[in-house]
Amino acid sequence: MDDFRFPKAERMTHKRDIELVFASGNTIKKTPVLLKYCWKTDATEGVKVLIVAPKRQHRRAVTRNKLKRRMRELFRLHKSSLKILTIGANKTLLLAVIYQGNASVPFKQLETQYRAAIMLLQAPI
């Protein structure tokens, strides 16, 4: 049951990690989900995630917060498939999950696109 939590240890909080992901990370896009990721080899912390809903596309804070809650829930429910990638790899996966759509989509459709993006993340490795 503890696997479905989202503790602070799994959140990307360091500025240098965030800059690393956005500067040199790879991209997977499944509209409305955009994943930017990179591997950090000097640490073995598992998965670190950053959830983003851009203010430019979603002006109202209520809408941005709702989208971020949905994205956190998707990560929380499907993080076991990401943890499999890091087991025995001696690396940390830095992952930014960005909502790129203009309008809010139903949760099931969002989940389908997120899972498709995660499958693409797992394929090359």
Count structural domains: 1
Q: Within the CATH hierarchy, at the fold level, what is the topology?
A: Ribosomal Protein S5, domain 2
Uncertain residue segments: none
Strand order of the largest sheet: 1-2-4-3
Output the CATH class name.
Answer: Alpha Beta
Helical proportion, percent range? 40-55%
Number of helices: 3
Shape: globular
Task: List the secondary-structure elements in sequence, H or E.
Answer: HEEEHEH
Number of strands: 4
Gross CATH architecture: 2-Layer Sandwich
Distance between the termini: 28 Å
Report the β-strand fraction as a percent range.
Answer: 15-25%
**SS-based structural class?**
alpha+beta
**For the residues shown, what is the average pLDDT?**
90
Biggest sheet architecture: 4 strands, mixed
Q: What would you report as the Rg, rounded to the nearest angstrom?
A: 14 Å
